[in-house]
UniProtKB/TrEMBL annotation:
Entry protein name: G-protein coupled receptors family 1 profile domain-containing protein
Xref: CDD domains: 7tmA_OR13-like
Gene name of the encoded protein: LOC122899312
Main subcellular localisation: membrane
Role noted for this protein: Putative odorant or sperm cell receptor.
Membrane topology: Multi-pass membrane protein
GO molecular function: G protein-coupled receptor activity; olfactory receptor activity
Compartments it resides in: Cell membrane
Organism (species): Neovison vison
Keywords: Cell membrane, G-protein coupled receptor, Membrane, Olfaction, Receptor, Sensory transduction, Transducer, Transmembrane, Transmembrane helix
Transmembrane segments annotated in the record for this chain: 24-46, 58-77, 89-117, 137-155, 201-223, 235-257
Gene3D superfamilies: Rhodopsin 7-helix transmembrane proteins (1.20.1070.10)
G-protein coupled receptors family 1 profile domain segment(s): 39-287
Amino acid sequence: KMLRTWVTEFLILGFSETPQLQMLLFPAFLLLYMAALSGNLLIVVVIVSSPALHTPMYFFLVNLAMVDILCTSTILPKLLGSMMAGRTISYGGCIVQLFFFTWSLGAELLLFSAMAYDRYVAICWPLRYSALMDPRVCRLLAMAVWTVSLANTSVHTGLLLHLPFCHSNVVQHFFCEIPPLLKLSCAPTHLNEVMAFTADIILAVGNFSVIMLSYVCIMASILRIRSAAGKRRAFSTCSSHVLVVTLYYSTVIYTYIRPASRYSLDKDKVVSVIYTSVAPSLNPLIYSLRNTDVKVALRRLTQAFSH
């Protein structure tokens, strides 16, 4: 039987009580949201409208852009609104935010693995690439990413719905995330913590290991490339991907792989900004807009609109 919560709304503490700092943070987060939204929407439009980009790599980039739009749109509009007006969020609103954020988080972690696998096949098995990564395989991989992450968030949200909140309604964070909410429950949260830890081991540590392994194989293949220019180009692509993946995974692992009692207010807020706001803003630049094919497609698209 589901327990009724004693809390009907939460107070999101946000970043600062200082008005001067709030005035600096509002434009910073507004800029991050606009960059994430416009950059990722641009990626989707450019790739969908350019037949030359209908390849597995860009198919996964469209999925990544959609995940980033979901993530930032779940967190940042509410954060910006709370900076301007009231900082309360209803119990239902908080649960919805947690559900969609955890969904996007899981999907992003899994997508990075799908993208690394795609690059591994392209560089290590070039002659078998079109057979191993045909459209059906890509669709199945994408479906698996969205479904597994949906199942993951359903489990965490379902477990959280069974917790009563009667100690306090002050969320020491800038959005509704699992660790700060577990801290507020007046019932044992051991099962929630075990499930969060398990999901983190499988989704974060497991995927990160798969990605690193695929990049070791990719690097070994690159080192066999004879031309210096070819090596440089391949290394520059891989290094930016590895940087984004390492930054994203390390912050997620740090947040979820310890008990709620070890939750630290200020450190965790800064860490969360990286995977909720900074990474979705940087992904379009790192993965796509530095890419020659995307630049060519973007130019064609702007020329078509201007005519």
